[in-house]
Design goal:
This is Poly [ADP-ribose] polymerase. It comes from Eptatretus burgeri (Inshore hagfish). It is a single chain. The chain is α/β, with parallel strands linked by helices. The protein has 18 helices and 24 strands. The strands form four sheets. Strands 11-12-10-13-14-9-8-15 form an eight-stranded mixed β-sheet, with helices on both faces. A hairpin with a 7-residue loop joins strand 11 and strand 12. The protein is globular, with a radius of gyration of 27 Å.
Length: 628
């Protein structure tokens, strides 16, 4: 079988997640996986050592190629499923049942999939299909046909009818529901993606979503394995997004809500809120990355650096960005000792918080003129990021100039959860464990509202972020963390779609609300149907504020019966934005493109208000109850 798979260029992978909180799996376990990935050319296998204490669950054996629209449905599996993605040729997959579409005249020689099955199975299957159809006394969308006497390695083939693609319809849902009955394993192709014209990523999304829903509501005890199989011709459809990583970027999902990306590229081309320049105490280092930054920024920044004068060895100086596409350049004196690099990065991160930045690009300190090893610098920088308590900062991009450095940084120690992928790897699977580390074990539940202890660091972080821009002596009465897996899953899917934004794609923002609407939001998400009740000046969508003082206004968060106000701290995928006005019901298209902007704002140069028009574009992280 190994030789056969090799000849067919088939990738086989095992990926198993035991329970909620999978992102807390030890880094040592991830290190073992990384070593295995490197040694075995990205053939990964992880087995749980103790599943006997867990309730029976379904294995989802799937996802050979995926588009971004599947990415966060897969993340759902971290919490509730044992997941093993497997890529095999459909016709040699050993399973109880395989599923295929068929034409309304039941001719197996028509259609790519049914024709392939017919060729493998032999004429006996065509005979069985006609017999099963005649034997059926009711109109069914699925005809279960015995595979006995055929050359297939399964017990039955379920044939289904689908119309030509026009729009989303319940057909795929009905097919899946009708097939789950009394079997241990079922294999689905990407239904309808041949002559029927269904988009591959939508077909896969529909099927996966229904399997997950079926698992939650009515999964038969007998069913243990569900396979989704895509044919090699569809590989390119999925390669650009989702669980296929960008070959120029490695994501590291770290602690405390900060997303870290390792970029191999030019820091002067970054479009984050600020870039960092590692320079000398006179701010005029004319070598390496510092030279490139000053040349790209232009004379105005050079003159501003001269005006700042000599700086202390641990100094951090902020200037304008000149010709570089960011708001600020943060200059810091370069260090050549790992411990000092950690301190330096901490100082830069704190200055970023002072500036209320949401994204930051850093160079790999000391790997140029300093001649430090990439591994030592990676550990030092990641130590600083892990020590830092974020408020506004959500995204950090570490920009390196050698591919080898990128791999080293992605393999640095104790990163919580890592992307097991490298640019030259043949493995397209990106393992992304994104259950927030702060979440309490939900024990199979999909929703929890968790009151934070007033003595916890998490409580202090959220309170400080709220009070920092409150402009009033509010008394924080209670902070509750919202753990809603369905909303989180949907939000992550949307966030993935706006990551290509040229601006910081994610921000921590505030939303004022009434106590009744607040309950609706944390249970069911933000709803544009509530728009128009208060602010509509920048569009008829859902409003979020950079400063808590705006949302804390009693117009937006009125007093409840107890004299308390309520405000939501939300994670919002703002993406690319455009100036709004009161008549807009959606963002306009980008110049020369059919794609729309992601959000509207009050001021494109310094936005303080964001308006979104997709209900899954924001996630309610915390509810803050307060009074004067």
């Amino acid at each position: 079988m190994d030789d056969f798979l090799a000849k067919q260029n088939v990738l086989s992978q095992d990926f198993r997640i035991d329970k909620p909180g999978a992102s807390k799996i030890s880094s040592k376990r991830f290190d073992n996986l990384k070593d295995l990935c490197k040694k075995e050319n990205c053939l990964l296998k992880m087995k749980s050592s103790n599943l006997s204490s867990l309730p029976p669950k379904t294995d989802l054996l799937n996802i050979l190629q995926q588009k971004s629209s599947l990415h966060n449905l897969i993340q759902k599996l971290e919490e509730t499923w044992n997941c093993t993605p497997v890529m095999k040729l459909f016709l040699v997959l050993q399973t109880n049942v395989i599923v295929s579409t068929v034409s309304t005249n039941l001719d197996l020689s028509k259609g790519f999939l049914s024709q392939a099955i017919f060729k493998k199975a032999g004429p006996a299957l065509q005979t069985q299909l006609h017999q099963a159809s005649r034997a059926s006394t009711t109109k069914k969308r699925v005809i279960d046909t015995s595979a006995s006497g055929s050359n297939l390695d399964c017990e039955e083939v379920y044939f289904t009818f689908l119309p030509n693609w026009k729009k989303e319809s319940p057909e795929a849902t009905e097919v899946i529901i009708e097939t789950f009955s009394g079997h241990k394993s079922i294999a689905f192709p990407a239904l309808g993606t041949g002559n029927l014209g269904y988009p591959v990523h939508l077909s896969a999304t529909f099927m996966l979503r229904e399997v997950l829903q079926f698992n939650n509501e009515q999964l038969p005890v007998s069913l243990k394995d569900v396979h989704f199989v895509l044919f090699p011709k569809n590989q390119q459809v999925f390669k650009h997004k989702g669980l296929y990583s960008n070959p120029q970027r490695i994501d590291i999902a770290t602690t405390k809500r900060i997303k870290v990306e390792i970029i191999c590229g030019d820091i002067t081309k970054e479009t984050t809120d600020a870039i960092v320049n590692s320079t000398n105490s006179a701010l005029n280092l004319n070598t390496g990355v510092s030279k490139a930054i000053l040349e790209a920024a232009g004379k105005s920044v050079v003159d501003e650096c001269k005006a700042k004068g000599q700086q202390p060895a641990d100094g951090v100086v902020v200037t304008g960005a000149g010709n570089i596409s960011c708001k600020h350049i943060i200059h810091t004196v370069g260090q050549t000792h790992p411990a000092k690099i950690t301190s330096c990065v901490l100082a830069v991160l704190q200055e970023s918080e002072n500036l209320k930045l949401s994204s930051l690009s850093l160079p790999a300190f000391g790997t140029g003129v300093g001649k430090l090893s990439a591994a030592a610098v990676a550990d030092a920088m990641m130590d600083a990021i892990k020590q830092h308590t974020p408020h506004s900062l959500l995204q950090i991009r570490i920009v390196v100039f050698h591919f080898e450095f990128q791999i080293t940084f992605s393999h640095c120690k104790d990163n919580g959860s890592k992307a097991l992928h490298s640019p030259n790897s043949k493995c397209p699977f990106l393992l992304c464990l994104s259950v927030p580390e702060t979440w309490t074990d939900m024990k199979g539940s999909t929703y929890m509202k968790v009151p934070l202890s007033a003595t916890s660091q998490e409580y202090a972080d959220v309170k400080n972020n709220f009070m920092k821009s409150a402009q009033a002596a509010f008394k924080v009465l209670k902070i509750e963390r919202i753990q809603n897996t369905k909303l989180w899953e949907g939000y992550l899917l949307r966030e993935k779609n706006v990551e290509k934004s040229t601006k910081p794609s994610v921000r921590t923002l505030f939303h004022g609300t009434t106590v009744d609407v607040c309950d609706q939001i944390v249970n069911h998400g933000f709803d544009r149907n509530y728009s128009g009740k208060n602010a509509t000046a920048y569009g008829k969508g859902t409003y979020f504020a950079v400063n808590s003082s705006y949302s804390a206004n009693k117009t937006y968060s009125p007093l409840d019966s107890k004299g308390q106000q309520h405000i939501i701290q939300a994670r919002v995928a703002t993406g690319d934005f455009h100036i709004g006005n009161q008549n807009m019901v959606a963002p306009p298209p980008k110049s020369g493109q059919s794609e729309l902007y992601d959000s509207l704002v009050d001021n494109v140069n310094n936005p303080t208000i964001f308006v979104i028009f997709r209900d899954d574009q924001a996630y309610p992280e915390y509810v803050i109850s307060f009074s004067l």
